[in-house]
Amino acid sequence: MYQVKRPARSEFVAVRNLSYHVLCWGKPAPDKTPLVLLHGWMDVAASYQFVVDAMSSEQYVIAPDWRGFGHSVLQTDNFWFPDYLADLDFLLDHYAGAQAVNLVGHSMGGNVAMIYAGVRPERVRRLVNLEGFGMPATQPQQAPEHFVHWLDDLKKLHQGELELKAYDSVAGVARRLMKTNPRLGADKANWLALQWAQPNAQGQWVILGQAGHKVRSAQLYRLDETLEIYRQISAPVLAVEASDDSLKLWWKDKYTLSEHHERLKAVAQVEIASVADAGHMLHHDQPQVLAALIERFIE
User: Fold this and answer.
1) Would you say the C-alpha torsion 44, 64, 273, 121 has a positive or negative sign?
2) Share in percent of the chain as helix, strand, coil (round to 5)
């Protein structure tokens, strides 16, 4: 089992009629800029533990479980991207007040961080985007199909067709994590499994994520709007990529890494870094390398 070096504090914060679960490391201080870590889809805040442990100095770190993930429980049948922005805005009011923060986001969390930094530029001092690539561009004529998918997925959800898989034991959850990420060692997988899932009344281990997250969005991904928001980002941005090409794996030729780099040209100050021997979950694969990149950039 992985041995935690810097234990987190678990807190619950009232945010927009929700009880938001937040992990905190270190203590606030006048000379410390809060470091806010945003996890990705079907992940949890505790996923950053390895990176926090690998940091050379103690930071004041804040990492929420997004709504419908981890212990931020929400009973709903679908999720809307703008809600993540609003949740983050309220959380920063609570933890940072008017102080600008150093913002790190992975995957979905990276996309949230990029959009937030464009609509609230005064609240972000430095931004680290970990494989938050956005989505393939869409065209207006795709809108009817998107609504059809959304409606059909909602029916599938309510008919029990989109339920998340349950596991017979926590060891089964760990094996699932290692199957998804072959670089993940058994020690980390066993520890993560306890953060990522919990037993239900039947004794099965279920993922701490709601099935509504599997409902496809009714909204188109509007690249023109995204680029306009990117142009408003005033904070320096570090875009970190894993050596494995996630976009090629997910989208084939529909959306490529070179297209992502082209989009980043809309950001005024951007640096691109690559982490060797890492896949999409690079905060699990190379936490020491990633911690050093983050600390160098924010300092």
Assistant:
1) positive
2) 40, 20, 40
**In 3-state terms, what secondary structure has residue 241?**
strand
Rg (CA), the chain: 19
What tokens appear for 165 in the block?
A: 């898989």
Q: Between the CA of residue 226 and those of 26, 222, 236, what are the distances in Å?
A: 34, 6, 17
DSSP state of 65: P
Cβ contact 157:211 at 8 Å: yes
Q: How many C-beta neighbours within 10 Å does residue 93 have? A: 13
Task: Select from 210, 186, 182, 212 the least CA-distant residue to 278.
Answer: 182
- How far apart, in whole angstroms, are the C-alpha atoms of residue 272 and residue 3? 32
The number of beta carbons lying within 10 Å of the beta carbon of residue 173 is: 25
Q: How far is C-alpha 173 from the geometric centre of its chain's CA atoms?
A: 20
**Number of other residues whose CB lies within 10 A of the CB of residue 125:** 18
Residue pair 288/54 in contact by the 8 Å Cβ criterion: yes
Q: Is the pLDDT of residue 201 over 90?
A: no
| DSSP letter string, 87-131 | HHHHHHHHHHTT--EEEEEETHHHHHHHHHHHHSGGGEEEEEEES
Angle between helices 257-264 and 223-230 (to 10 degrees): 50
Q: Within its chain, how far is the Cα of 288 from the centroid?
A: 19
pLDDT in tens, 235-247: 999 999 999 999 9
pTM over 0.85: yes
Distances (CA, A) of 196 to 6, 111, 142, 176, 187: 19, 22, 35, 11, 14
In this predicted model, what pLDDT tens digit does every residue of 20-54 receive, in sequence order? 999 999 999 988 999 999 999 999 999 999 999 99
Residues 6+ apart with CB under 8 A from 9: 23, 24, 25
Closest CA to 103 of 139, 158, 59, 53: 59
Which letter, b or e, does each residue of 202-218 get, where b requires 16 or more Cβ atoms within 10 Å of its Cβ?
Answer: eeebbbbbbbbbbbebb
